[in-house]
Amino acid sequence: MSSTGGLERKYPPLAPYGPRHFPRWFWFSDVVIAFAMFSIVYSLFLTTNAWTLPLETVTISLDPLMLPIYTVYSTVRTFAAYALILVFSLIFGYVAAHSRPAERILEPLVYVLQSLPVLSFLPLVMFTFVFLLPDSRLGLEMGSIVLMFTTQAANVAIAFHNSLKTVPSALRDYSKVYRLSAWQRFTKIELPFAAIPLIWNSVLSVAGCWFFLMACELFTLIDRRITLPGVGSYLALAADSGDMTAVLWGLGALVFIIVLTDLLIWRPLIIWSSKFKYEYVTHEVPDRSSVIDFVAKSRITRILVALGKGVDSIPFPDLRRSPSRASSLRPMPRNMKAVFAGISLLALSYIFYLLASILIRLPLEMWFEVLWGTLSTIARVETALLLALAWTLPVGIKIGTNPRITKSIQPVLQVIASIPATALFPVILLAIIEGGGGLNIASIILMLLGMQWYLLFNIIAGASSIPEDLLEASKLAGLRGFRLWRTVILPAIVPYVITGSITAQGSAFNASVVSEYIHFSGQVLSTSGLGALIALATDTGNLPLLVASSIAISATVVTLNNFLWKRLYNFCKDRYSL
Fold first, then answer.
1. DSSP per-residue codes, 325-348
2. pTM of the prediction?
3. All structural domains of the chain
4. Closest by CA position to 508, among listed 388, 405, 336, 410
5. Which string of DSSP letters, residue by residue, matches 160-200?
6. Sorting pLDDT into bands at 50, 70 and 90, what band is 11?
7. Which of 130, 165, 225, 467 could serve as 279's disulfide partner, Cβ 3.0–4.6 Å?
8. C-alpha 275 chain-centroid distance
9. What is the DSSP string of 476-527?
């Protein structure tokens, strides 16, 4: 993965620029790093202390002086959700990539998790956490974090899993020849290879968490309005009260923290991850990050790096089966398998019984509504997907293959992707209605606004991962224009396009609730679709319709992924992988 092709090279956790020597009197970076660490610890202490306050109605002040503390609260929630997303993605991706039976079970669960709208499981999640933690605000806070996690976990998990499935055979052969343990193979081969799509999809997931702040910090639960202090609830209250000055202050705080996160975290990580490209030729002048340079000067950083190398040198046990131990490693006894299968069958039977007892109360004519709504929503989702591909494919390739454009445009894309499309939808809907259009067109546009970023960021990640030596060989062969795209670029990014399509499709089904059933100018506008049925069932308390519509969305997404996208991905993985 390096320019020399030396796969045995260590991957240091920070500066990829080689050893540097700085004057002993240089201490400014130590002060800044220590202050940053203190600020993070203090923010965590301040936030967790607020979580232990009694469970009572929270009053949001529109005073701009309260925005710093609200920003801290929202930032901690967002990155707590991202921590769950990252841990879940690493575990899911590794287990599903190395175990075919586990993949068959886990993949549909992730697809369902991604496609279910927040309204479908918001009451269940909140009731569960409030029941478990009834005496403080901690239950609501945990519920809010879990809601953000469920909306964005599938994006990173699917991208990481698909990256592990496309590790080049040369790297797999290397791990076998040098008899790497499972841990060594994961840390030295698989995780570095998946670093670029993992980081780009992490950027998108955190942007998605900012996107869902308003829904996760201000919501209604059994006719009771629940408010959690944060930038999202501040913006929602300011918009409801018509205070445009407060809205601008809230948007300013949100944009500030997004840009700051990009400058201090995502931009350095993207530059640092470029050294993991599987290539033998690199740019003559590699991209540099002033943040990495500054952090590398600190003595605190050097101490942390030394500690990390010490942990890395610990001899982890080799879990591979050797001939001498083969006899001691026996499979699970048949009677244990029978017990496990029996318990699973009983649990599934009970779940099916509960669902059947609910669904049997749904009238027959409503089942026809669910069927027609399924077909209508599929048509809108696939139309929005084609429109999104039409512009994200050329733009994403242009950005990903040009590091200078990536460096300048990526912060802008992150900010735009973090702005809730629902905040812009009333303006878009008004313009479409005045122009003679209907809610069908407006619904497709809102789906497009929500799904396009999943495609764009994955395409950028795929274009950024194309080896430089492959592009150089293409130039020497005289490939230009359309021939270069057809022969090299498009085949190289096809797995990333499919991954982005899977996550974008799930996001569009998720957005169908707010795009097919809208409260606008004191009236309700709706069209046929599963999202409209879910929103209607939520408003009217129709549990059988809610369950039937949610099951229909999940079954539709799982069916499309298994019979279309997964087969297409496996075909492209075998034909176009390096």
1. GGGG--PPPHHHHHHHHHHHHHHH
2. 0.72
3. 65-309+361-576 (1.10.3720.10)
4. 388
5. HHHHHHT--HHHHHHHHHTT--HHHHIIIIIHHHTHHHHHH
6. very low
7. 467
8. 23
9. HTT--HHHHIIIIIHHHHHHHHHHHHHHHHHHHHHHHHHHHEEEETTEEEE-
